[in-house]
Structures are given as structure tokens and as C-alpha cells.
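Backbone-to-sequence.
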């Protein structure tokens, strides 16, 4: 009887499997689906019988997709997402996009300096779409993306995983910022040796800026000292303005209103690209497509 019941609800099985694959945990999947853990397990087992293969490696409540499970998930996710968003997709096909949600993952600098103009334009065209901006650090944005908790991410990406599409749309330079009338402003060219005596104000060690600065100074065998750690470039800029140190930042954070001097450091520090980051094979809602096309109008063109 259970087999007959589950065969009458293939979407339910696929949806449950999709959520389990995203959460990698039976307990978390049950909470997300508002059903019991045994029901989740029974539905996944029914799908495994239907497919004739094991889809999950079970380790208590935690699970991991088998190779066959990964293939099925890539096929299933666009289908379940398409059904979940059928109403919005249908409305968009009729020329209406008056409701729906858009989830974006971005770091603090992207959220502060890059996204505001794009979000403003999008909201002007589609005021009924609710935007969820997930401010993330480090690899947490990639985790949200791979778990399909967000539609897309925006930011720099040093290494592109195989299952990710990365489309850069802007390049920014690394610069040294110093207070007005600082001794370094009198140099025609600033070297790492020139910077060495001055204390640096840097973001926390786990962030990429610190790692980049450390790598460059070490590669050139130049000592450096950190006088202060400060989270966020707005804070870093303020303390540089106060004369408490100098810093290496990306010029995306400069608005032109700061009381500081910016010195280009292309000879030592690499530029940084910011781009659109999406998961391969993902189903995109109409609102996600419109937002992505603001960055890359030809993103959805056939190859």
C-alpha cells in the first residue's frame, strides 16, 4: 500500500530527495519540509526502489549523495524548482512579474559598493519582487549557492569549481590608502620597502585581503607590521583618515568623499574581478533571469 501511495506522488518523492540533497541531513530536511524524519526516510527509500539504485550514503542523520544521487539531483532540482515557481513563471510568460522572491549572496563590499545601483534599477522595474540579500563571508556564499538557498552570488572568485559558472563584469585595482599629508604622498613611486615602516590596518586574517597582503610581502621578502584589525572597509578607511595607519584595499570601496590619498599599487598587488556566480544546471525563476541579465544580457542566449 505504501508503494502504491508513493507512486501516486512522484513530485513529493523528488521534492523530498532534493531537499535532503541540499541539506545533507535528514533532520534538517524534515524541518524544512514540515514532516517527520521517518517520513523523509521512507520517501527517499521509495525513490531509491523506483530508481533501482542507492541515492544516499547514510551516516546517522547526516547523508551524502552517491554518484548516482548526484546525477539524479542535477536532473531533479530544475524540475522541482520549476514546479515550485510555476505561478511566477506563468505570470512572467504573460508579461507580468508582480510577485516572487530573489535571493542574492554577496560579501560586505559587494553589498555596499556594487549592488545598490543594480538593486535600485531592478526594484524600479519590478517593485513587487521581494529581494533577500544574504551578506556572507568567505566560503559561506558558495555553500548557500550549492545548497540552492540563493539564486545567485555576486563577488570575486579566485578559483572556479567545475560545477560553477563565473562571469566577471568589473575589475578593480589594489591601492594603498594613506592620510592626507602622509610622508608616502611625497613619493613619486611607492614600494613595499616604503610601506614597511608603517603599521597596516587590515581586515581579519580569514579574509582574502589579509592573505593577499601577506603573500605579496613574503614573496618580496619585505617585513610588514599590522597595527590594527578592523572588519569592513568603511571602518578601515575611517581609521586611516584618523592617521592610525595605512591600508591596502580594493578601489571598489572608494566613493571620492574620503579624506585620504589613494596610491595605485598595480606593480605589486593583483587587480580583483567581481562577477556573477551561479550553479550549473540550476533552474532560474523569471526574476532571477531578469536580474542576471542586468549583468550579462546574453547569459541565457543559446550556445
Amino acid at each position: 500500500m505504501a508503494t502504491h501511495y508513493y507512486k501516486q506522488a512522484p513530485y513529493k518523492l523528488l521534492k523530498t530527495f532534493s531537499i535532503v540533497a541540499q541539506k545533507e541531513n535528514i533532520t534538517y530536511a524534515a524541518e524544512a519540509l514540515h514532516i517527520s524524519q521517518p517520513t523523509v526516510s521512507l520517501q527517499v527509500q521509495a525513490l531509491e526502489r523506483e530508481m533501482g539504485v542507492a541515492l544516499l550514503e547514510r551516516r546517522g542523520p547526516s547523508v551524502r549523495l552517491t554518484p548516482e544521487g548526484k546525477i539524479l539531483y542535477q536532473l531533479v532540482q530544475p524540475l522541482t524548482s520549476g514546479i515550485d515557481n510555476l505561478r511566477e513563471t506563468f505570470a512572467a510568460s504573460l508579461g507580468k512579474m508582480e510577485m516572487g522572491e530573489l535571493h542574492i549572496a554577496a560579501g560586505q563590499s559587494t553589498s555596499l559598493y556594487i549592488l545598490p545601483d543594480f538593486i535600485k534599477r531592478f526594484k524600479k522595474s519590478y517593485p513587487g519582487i521581494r529581494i533577500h540579500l544574504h551578506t556572507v563571508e568567505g566560503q559561506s556564499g558558495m555553500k548557500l549557492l550549492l545548497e540552492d538557498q540563493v539564486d545567485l552570488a555576486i563577488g570575486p572568485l579566485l578559483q572556479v569549481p567545475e560545477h560553477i559558472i563565473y562571469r566577471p563584469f568589473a575589475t578593480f585595482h589594489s591601492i594603498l590608502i594613506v592620510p592626507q599629508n602622509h610622508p608616502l604622498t611625497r613619493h613619486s613611486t611607492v614600494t613595499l620597502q616604503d610601506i614597511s615602516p608603517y603599521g597596516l590596518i587590515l581586515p581579519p586574517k580569514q579574509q582574502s585581503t589579509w592573505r593577499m597582503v601577506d603573500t605579496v610581502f613574503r614573496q618580496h621578502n619585505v617585513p610588514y607590521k599590522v597595527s590594527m584589525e578592523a572588519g569592513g572597509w568603511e571602518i578601515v578607511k575611517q581609521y586611516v583618515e584618523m592617521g592610525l595607519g595605512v591600508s591596502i584595499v580594493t578601489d571598489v570601496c572608494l566613493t571620492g568623499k574620503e579624506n585620504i590619498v589613494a596610491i595605485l599599487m598595480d606593480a605589486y598587488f593583483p587587480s580583483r574581478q567581481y562577477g556573477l556566480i551561479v550553479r550549473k544546471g540550476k533552474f532560474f525563476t523569471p526574476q532571477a533571469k531578469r536580474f542576471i541579465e542586468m549583468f550579462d544580457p546574453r547569459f541565457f542566449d543559446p550556445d
